[in-house]
Amino acid sequence: MEAGNLLLRRPIVIRIFNPKQPPPPPSLPPRLPSSFPPSFRVSSDLQRGYRGPKPRREWVADWVSRNDDAVRSLPIYVGAVSLLAVLVNRGVSGIAPVANASSSQSRADLLTLGLAVTNILAGLVWLSIRPKTIVAVSPQGVECLRLNSHLPDFVISELIWIWESLSAATCCRSLAIVYDSKLILQTGVAASSSANDREAVPIDASTLMQGALYRSVLDSGSQSYLANLSLYPGKSELPFLPPNMQAVILQPLGDKGIAIIGGDTIRGFTTSDQAWISLLGDKLDATLTKCANNLAVAVQDRD
Questions:
Q1: What is the spatial distance between Cα 217 and Cα 222, in angstroms, rounded to a whole number?
Q2: Least C-beta-crowded within 10 Å: which of 149, 160, 213, 248?
Q3: Residues 178, 205: contact at Cβ < 8 Å?
Q4: What's the alpha-carbon Rg for the chain, to the nearest Å?
Q5: Which of 178, 150, 187 is nearest to 254 (CA)?
Q6: What confidence score (pLDDT) does residue 120 get?
């Protein structure tokens, strides 16, 4: 308000120039007052570059990651050199080759031999045990798109948007939604039917709702993440998913439905993905609840 009052109180000066006279030189821009906040004077400093703390670089970790095979073989070389040094020292020192418990040199040599053998065994273990590289797999099945025919257009648009968002931003390759004892959506890659390889296995909503996975998710009311689907015996309750599906998220939709999201990578869904899917589940639950209420009202009006 004070700035507005100052602008209103400032007198307006109108100057009329004679066309025969040259125009006056342009006036210089006003200087900033001394009381101007200093926070607005950092533009020149910002142009010089960022001066804040920089991320710390782990040189040792980078070197180890680049030379993984050499680091894993290093204990073998150290143990072999130590073992050879002990034998050479034993041979040139003039001590009897047979170990003597009363000799301090023999006890030291035995201890060194044990450490050398331990290093060699540790190197062999490091070479034999390697972390498994997790890669995305191509789901074995057929592409399908099944929608409930009684859904209004705005619900169908939201379902398609959810599927496109999940498939583009996460490792999701299959999506199935069951709500109020009805199949709402089945899309993505599904298992092929034994009768016809070109047709996807249909989802039996009643059988799925009687399974332990469905009941446990609805009873807990929270998301269930099967990071490695092959390790869970409940995989048999999801026959419509491709046989090589790697991970599955079971997202409850209120207390009436569930969304089954299949991924092509073991532990491919991050914590951010899980939180985002939970929010999508809440939004979809509100939409489907509104749709169910509208359908119920329409049926009553027809009656």
A1: 6
A2: 149
A3: yes
A4: 36
A5: 178
A6: 92
Q: Which residues of 6-34 are buried (b: 16+ CB within 10 A; e: fewer)?
A: eeeeeeeeeeeeeeeeeeeeeeeeeeeee
Name the one residue in this structure whose structure tokens are 């034998």. Answer: 87
Residue 91: pLDDT band with limits 50, 70, 90: confident
Summary count for the chain: helices (H), strands (E): 9, 6
Q: How confident is the model over 137-178, as pLDDT tens digits?
A: 999 999 999 998 888 888 999 999 999 999 999 999 999 999
**The pLDDT value given to residue 104:** 79
Helix pair 59-66, 68-92: axis angle to 10 deg: 90
Task: Give the C-alpha distances (Å, rounded to integers) separating 9 from 15, 32, 36, 56.
Answer: 19, 20, 21, 56
Q: Give the whole-angstrom CA distance, residue 279 versus residue 221.
A: 13
DSSP 157: H
Beta-carbon-side half-sphere exposure of residue 245 (alpha carbons within 13 Å): 28
174/142 Cα distance (integer angstroms): 11
